Amino acid sequence: MPNRIICESVCTSPNIELLGWFEEVCFYRLLVQCDDFGRYDARPQLLRARLFPLRDDVDVAAVEAAMDQLEAVGLIERYTVDGQPYLQLCTWDKHQRIRAPRVKFPPPRTLF
User: What is the pLDDT of residue 7?
Assistant: First the structure.
């Protein structure tokens, strides 16, 4: 995945301020896993493996709870396409450049 830039406005984001430390770490780690359209596979087991590959003390339930909180504060949207769960970072296009010509993960149905 390409490198990402985190703007200094993240320090004053009202959405980020609603997160606990673990949810905030999950959000930053999720930023570097998403494709160039801000989308990623939302299977909890995969999220745990990709976000915390070297941490044995982080379990799937903790990551799933963090995703619930990220969605509750409006940072991600979870959706399903053909039975597969995905997520979209809600303000991706405001903070990141889209460089890839094609999507890696399907968009939410609302974008079709």
Answer: 81
Q: If pLDDT is split at 50, 70 and 90, which confidence band does 52 have? A: very high
Q: What's phi and psi for 2, nearest 5 deg?
A: -70, 160
CATH of domain 13-111: 1.10.10.10
C-alpha–C-alpha distance, residues 16 and 68, integer Å: 14
Per-residue DSSP letter, 76: E
For the cut 50, the answer to whether the pLDDT of residue 112 exceeds it is no
**24, 22, 46, 40: which is closest to 89 by C-alpha?**
40
One-letter amino acid for residue 65 of the chain: A
